[in-house]
Amino acid sequence: MNIDVREFTPQKIEFILENTTPAKANSLRRTLISEVPTLAAEDIKIYENSSIMTDEMLALRIGLTPLKTQIDEFELPENCECGGEGCSACKTTLILGGEGPTTLYSGDLKTEDGVEIPDKKIPLVKLYEGQEVILEAEAKLGKGKDHTKWQPAVACGYKGYPIQKITDECDNCGDCVEICPRNVYKLENNKLQIQNPEACSLCSLCVQECHTDAITVTDDKNKFIFNFETDESLTPTEITTKATEILTKKLQGFKETLNQ
């Protein structure tokens, strides 16, 4: 399995996955969205909330606020020596407080050392004159398979690598250029050219539009265009590296079980 990175930003990655199978590509996708742990608020004690927002909605917003940390610095509660009861190895504390009139944002959350709020502009609650919020939250590592607040990889998906072919039957009418929503084709010197093959969504509109049946579109069954975004709690590199480690460990465990 080879990986060729095509696009990389702090919030998004796109890469070509080669020499693999659909089953392996889907295993990586499922591991990315469900097995990579990240930090999120779990238990929230609200001491004061005189805002118009209910305690439940306020707690939901706190829980969905991404928290950035080095995941190796924390233990999953089920793996911690405290047995998941809560200690400095498996939990951290967040504090939020304020009086109106003001709006409290994610950046107003007070965190302990080693924990950051990557997006400080998420509005949490608006307070009017005389209103107040005071709360304390415990954040723990968790996995996306338990709740989406512990899912650092979002909009995760892949498609087969598209392959377009144009035969000599093409009369260069340009109908496929007009119908393609991804600008895969272009006419250059009255000659049909494929200018952006990887942008193809495999919709086959070009095939249906071609009156000479000169275009075929297929996908490579061993090559995929993979992409996902992050909630900024972890970088794309950290998420991909952790997912491959987890997947490799699971496969090794399965192999050892079969050999017993």
UniProtKB/TrEMBL annotation:
GO terms for molecular function: 3 iron, 4 sulfur cluster binding; DNA binding; DNA-directed RNA polymerase activity; metal ion binding; oxidoreductase activity; protein dimerization activity. Its cofactor is [3Fe-4S] cluster. The keyword Transcription applies. The keyword Protein biosynthesis does not apply. Binds 1 [3Fe-4S] cluster. It is an enzyme of class 2 (transferase). Keywords: 3Fe-4S, Cytoplasm, DNA-directed RNA polymerase, Iron, Iron-sulfur, Metal-binding, Nucleotidyltransferase, Transcription, Transferase. Its main location: cytoplasm. [3Fe-4S] cluster binds at C200, C203, C206. GO terms for cellular component: cytoplasm; DNA-directed RNA polymerase complex. One of its GO terms (biological process) is DNA-templated transcription. Part of the RNA polymerase complex. DNA-dependent RNA polymerase (RNAP) catalyzes the transcription of DNA into RNA using the four ribonucleoside triphosphates as substrates. Belongs to the archaeal Rpo3/eukaryotic RPB3 RNA polymerase subunit family. This is DNA-directed RNA polymerase subunit Rpo3. The lineage of its organism: Archaea, Methanobacteriati, Methanobacteriota, Methanonatronarchaeia, Methanonatronarchaeales. The gene is rpo3.
